[in-house]
Design goal:
By secondary structure, the chain is of the alpha+beta class. The protein has a single domain, classed as Alpha-Beta Plaits. It has five helices and four strands. It is globular.
């Protein structure tokens, strides 16, 4: 028996960072993402975001890679949203995503951060937030591709 745990804070944005996730309907999207994660045997701690991006804090089982999880979430939600009248302007997700690993002791901090998205983005743009995540995690940014869809 192997014992593993992988906690990730995942962030991805809509195509061209367009504000196509209606605040009134975001809970339906988050519930759909929760269902995908549950079907993949993931433990979801929080999902939230803004009209132009989504944050997910989740633990993944040992047989599921971060890239596979994100691909499944983005593919399934894109199909669902494009056919759903609750998201009439949704055109898809941006190509990139960010995924940062954390430990269980960071859980409350990450959950609070996701809960506070609406307040946070009164002061900070998504681009500035995303850039800060990358820099904070030691990721070099290639400006030719940064948030380009």
């Amino acid at each position: 028996m192997s014992y593993t745990t992988s906690y990730y804070h995942i962030v991805f944005h809509t195509y061209h960072s367009e504000p196509t996730i209606c605040v009134e309907n975001e809970r339906e999207l988050y519930a759909y993402i929760y269902g995908i994660a549950k079907n993949l045997s993931c433990q979801t701690y929080r999902i939230g975001g803004m009209p132009d991006h989504v944050h997910i804090f989740v633990s993944l089982p040992s047989d599921l890679s971060l890239s596979d999880f994100v691909q499944r979430v983005k593919t399934n939600t894109s199909k669902w949203m494009k056919g759903n009248p609750l998201f009439p302007h949704f055109r898809g997700w941006g190509r990139e995503y960010a995924g940062f690993s954390y430990s269980l002791r960071d859980k409350d901090m990450i959950v609070a951060y996701i809960v506070g998205q609406k307040e946070h983005h009164k002061k900070v743009s998504f681009e500035a937030e995303y850039r800060a995540f990358l820099v904070e995690n030691g990721i070099d940014i290639d400006e030719r591709f940064f948030l380009k869809d």
